[in-house]
Design goal:
heterodimer, A: 323 residues, Rossmann fold, 2 domains, 6-stranded parallel sheet, 6-stranded mixed sheet, 48% helix, 19% strand, elongated, B: 571 residues, alpha+beta, 6-stranded antiparallel sheet, 5-stranded antiparallel sheet, 52% helix, rod-shaped, disordered N terminus
Chain lengths: 323, 571
């Protein structure tokens, strides 16, 4: 009888050990999600900051991130090709900033239909495949820009606008915000507007032409980072720092220098790091089945930086990347 | 017999299994609960300890880093005194300290006097100089460290730095010197501190302003926040709530504090969950083992017992033909089984002994009966002979005497029980002869015998009691002449005797009475004795069968097996 008991005990022990060893080998490393970020550019500080945020989120959520963008911020065709390649290469999620609101739509639709989760950042696209939009409330940002000008200039405002690609959603939204706010003020008119390329040199040249052709202009508003840098260079080059109140977008060493020198008067600073981070984080949520909890639009913070608050702690945090 | 419908108690198997499994389950549950509780406590304690250890290490490292900064600052201050070699010394210093961004000196009134920075010149018209604050410098008196800020004196170069500012001995032109240091020296170390998978350390000052955080950019982008305001109010030590463990340690000789953050969920709960899962699996396995063991045990005990019980039942129902198969199992069961086996053998022996004794007794009885002569029959026969002699019927008297002599000779047959059928028929005929004389030819008799039967043997005095019965009960009361027929024939392996009369017949009750009751007052062998004798000798299937019809007659059929001369010996 005692032997039987021992036998059963030994049997139980063996079973337990088998189970334990089975439990041990059971944990397997989950496949990393693959996510691609297709930006408008890979050069500007704005986009580098977006990429840094995206990398941080990819590291935190253990995802494989690839970032890419076309040479110029007008090349929606390259973006479409990149989206197709990304889908082809088997990425599960796409974080995308559209150069062209309508002409990027087909590629995004195709990606969505291929089962790729799409998160739109910075600039929207006309597709119902987009899971969520993360970026600045561009209309409000435009109004902020106009507000900065209205506060900075007394009397009548004669405004020159330096915008970029007319089919890009965010630039147009901002311009609409600016125009609405200026119209509401009753003491401002838009004297001229120029559509330039998203490239500092072309923006400088076009802004210089604008200023030369419309000498009455006392406010210039530029709508993104490269156009702001170009506009700042034009104002500095024409020595119109005192005569022209320049409102730019985003943070760039050149425009920050300009703020201190005086030829840039206000910057509307977005939060590109957050866009990148939240974009990839949302992609992760969509992939891991938490998509239901996502809001359709996430507004990242925006703030006005001018000479007075340039070196306040908040502005420092917003303007200067902590390496 | 046992009453089968009576409720039986639960089986040994059920009791044993329930008891073992129940006890094991209770013990397991309490052990696991206790173990898991202690385990969680220990895990929390170890998580606290590891967090505190990590923080202590970081604190030491930061302490030595600060010491290093102060030493560097002393070098800078010393260099400031070397009027001639100042530039060279500071340049050399900046070359060897790649994390030093700039050294700046200020006058008594806070004016920027000079700036040394590798490859950079300060802008002419500085909007805000975050590296020096006269008010703080005057208020502090000694060297002090600032919170992180952006280097704001250069054009197109805005790194995040901390500044050490120290007063200089009065006498020189410069009253203060500031050293701007990038985070390169400390970030590499703090970024690599991991507590668990997601835990980390960060640096803050006494007021709760973050000095360095591995996720500073997330904090600055507003994507993450640390509740430094409430952390600043806590003294050094380790604190835990349900989700997070905080450990604080002040860096010696400075206003900086190291905060370690680790997650209870990942350090403790995951382990505890894993342990619960393991315990569960283990408990299941142990329960299964207990179930199996108890089943095995009860099987070892219960099944042989049941086998024994059914064997007893079979023995009860048919003791004669029961052959016992020993039941295997444990020693106790085997002993029980063996005892039962011995008992069965003993009882069967006893039973056969009793049966044998009964047979012997009956035989003795019969022999005694056979030995008796019905005295009335003898008196009457002798009277008849005397009467015949008186009347001068000598021939008849001689026949009578012969018949009587034959009757007695065959009755005795030298004590043999079995005699040839021929002899038995002779005996019957002698009897009939005598009776016919006595009854004055009131009946006739015939024999119809298959000659092949004559060589076989049969029990002696088998026919006589039947014929006697036929005469006494069948023919005695008749007015007409009676007729008795004695038939002997073969039927398969049996011999059949039939004694038929045409007398008054018998009712069914009378037939039963004759077959089942011994003749009371009468002597001699009754019909019942004949039947009993045949059954004892040859088996239940042999014996008498009586068919009778009132006023028509009676037929008594006697069946016995064919017995040759050889077989006789064996009987």
């Amino acid at each position: 009888m005692r032997r039987n008991r021992l036998l059963a005990l030994a049997l139980g022990l063996v079973l337990t050990l088998t189970c334990l060893s089975a439990c041990g080998t059971e944990q397997e490393a989950g496949q990393r999600h693959r996510v691609a970020l297709v930006a408008k550019s890979t050069q500007t500080e704005f986009w580098l900051s977006v990429f840094a945020g995206a990398q941080a989120a990819a590291a935190e959520y253990n995802m494989e991130l690839t970032t890419m963008g076309p040479e110029t911020e007008e090349d929606y065709e390259t973006q479409n090709r990149m989206i197709a390649e990304v889908v082809e290469s088997g990425a599960e999620a796409l974080v995308f900033s559209a150069i062209d609101f309508t002409r990027n739509a087909a590629a995004v639709d195709a990606a969505g239909q291929a089962g790729v989760k799409v998160v739109s950042i910075d600039s929207g696209v006309d597709s119902d495949q987009v899971g969520t939009y993360i970026g600045t409330d561009n209309y409000a940002a435009g109004r902020m820009a106009a507000q900065a000008a209205l506060e900075g200039v007394e009397g009548e405002l004669v405004v020159g606008l330096v915008n970029y690609d007319e089919s890009t959603a965010n630039g147009q939204e901002r311009e609409r915000g600016v125009r609405d706010a200026l119209a509401e003020s009753g003491r401002a008119r838009v004297a001229a507007s120029v559509t330039t390329l998203v490239e500092a040199e072309r923006a400088r040249a076009d802004t210089a032409d604008l200023l030369r052709n419309n000498p009455e202009i006392n406010v210039v508003i530029a709508f993104n980072e490269p156009t702001s840098v170009g506009a700042a260079q034009a104002v500095a080059g024409l020595r119109l720092a005192d005569a022209v109140f320049l409102v730019g977008f985003d943070s760039n060493v050149a425009t920050i220098d300009g703020l201190q020198e005086g030829y840039v008067d206000a910057l509307i600073v977005q939060n590109p790091y957050a866009m990148g981070y939240l974009g990839v984080e949302s992609a992760y949520r969509l992939l891991s089945g938490q998509g239901g909890a996502l809001e359709t639009t996430v507004d990242t913070s925006t703030q006005i930086v001018n000479r007075g608050n340039l070196f306040s702690l908040d502005s420092q945090k917003a303007l200067f990347a902590f390496e | 017999m046992r009453d089968k419908s009576a409720p039986r108690g639960p089986r040994t198997t059920a009791i044993l299994v329930a008891m073992v499994v129940g006890v094991v389950a209770i013990i397991l549950c309490s052990c696991i609960a206790l173990f898991l509780h202690r385990y969680r406590v220990a895990m929390v304690q170890s998580a606290r300890t590891s967090t505190a250890q990590a923080v202590a290490q970081v604190s030491n490292t930061v302490g030595s880093y600060l010491e290093d900064i102060h030493q560097a600052m002393e070098l800078v201050v010393a260099s400031m005194w070397e009027e001639d070699d100042q530039d060279m010394l500071l340049r050399a210093f900046l070359t060897f300290r790649p994390d030093a961004v700039a050294v700046t000196s200020y006058s008594e009134s806070g004016l920027l006097l000079d700036c040394w920075s590798p490859g950079r010149e300060p802008r002419e018209d500085i909007l805000v100089n975050l590296s020096f604050d006269l008010v703080t410098a005057q208020a502090t008196g000694g060297p002090y460290l600032t919170a992180p800020h952006v280097e704001s004196i250069f054009e197109g170069y805005y790194p995040w730095v901390v500044t050490v500012t120290a007063p200089l001995e009065p006498g020189g032109e410069a009253a203060w010197v500031s050293l701007d240091l990038s985070f390169a020296g400390i970030s590499g170390y703090i970024n690599n501190v991991g507590i668990g998978q997601r835990g980390y350390c960060f640096l803050m000052d006494q007021s709760g302003a973050i000095v360095y955080h591995p996720q500073q950019r997330l904090l600055y982008a507003g994507l993450k926040s640390e509740d430094t305001a409430s952390l600043a109010t806590l003294a050094d030590g380790t604190y835990d709530d349900d989700t997070v463990i905080y450990s604080l340690s002040t860096v010696e000789g400075s206003g900086w504090r190291v905060v370690g953050v680790s997650y209870v969920d990942e350090l403790v709960n995951q382990n505890v969950r894993e342990m619960i899962r393991l315990s569960g699996v283990m408990a299941l396995v142990i329960l299964a083992a207990a179930l199996f063991t108890s089943w095995l045990l009860s099987h070892l005990l219960g099944r042989p017992l049941r086998g024994l019980a059914s064997a007893m039942e079979r023995f009860e129902s048919d003791a004669d033909h029961f052959t016992y198969q020993p039941v295997g199992g444990t020693r106790e069961v085997r002993e029980l089984s063996d005892s039962f086996g011995h008992m069965v053998v003993r009882i069967q022996q006893l039973m056969s002994t009793v049966r044998q004794e009964e047979v012997n007794l009956r035989k003795t009885e019969l022999k005694a009966l056979q030995a008796q002569i019905n005295p009335h029959f003898l008196y009457n026969t002798l009277d008849s002979i005397a009467w015949m002699c008186e009347r001068g019927r000598n021939t008849d008297a001689v026949n009578m005497v012969h018949a009587l002599a034959r009757l007695f000779r065959i009755s005795i047959s030298r004590g043999n029980e079995l005699i040839p059928i021929a002899k038995e028929l002779e005996h019957a005929e002698s009897y009939l002869q005598i009776q016919k004389y006595r009854y004055k030819n009131q009946f006739t008799y015939t024999f119809e015998v298959d000659p092949a039967c004559l060589e076989y043997y049969c029990n002696k005095i088998t026919l006589q009691p039947i014929i006697e019965n036929a005469i006494n009960h069948g023919l005695d009361l008749m007015v007409d002449e009676g007729q008795i027929t004695v038939q002997v024939c073969q039927e398969g392996e049996d011999i059949l005797f039939r004694v038929r009369d045409n007398g008054v017949g018998m009712s069914r009750e009378q037939v039963d009475a004759i077959l089942h009751h011994s003749p009371g007052d009468r002597t001699g062998i009754g019909i019942k004795n004949v039947d009993d004798r045949l059954k004892i000798y040859f088996g239940k299937e042999y014996g008498l069968r009586i068919t009778s019809e009132l006023d028509v007659g009676t037929c008594v059929e006697i069946r016995m097996p064919k017995i040759g001369e050889g077989d006789y010996e064996t009987k």
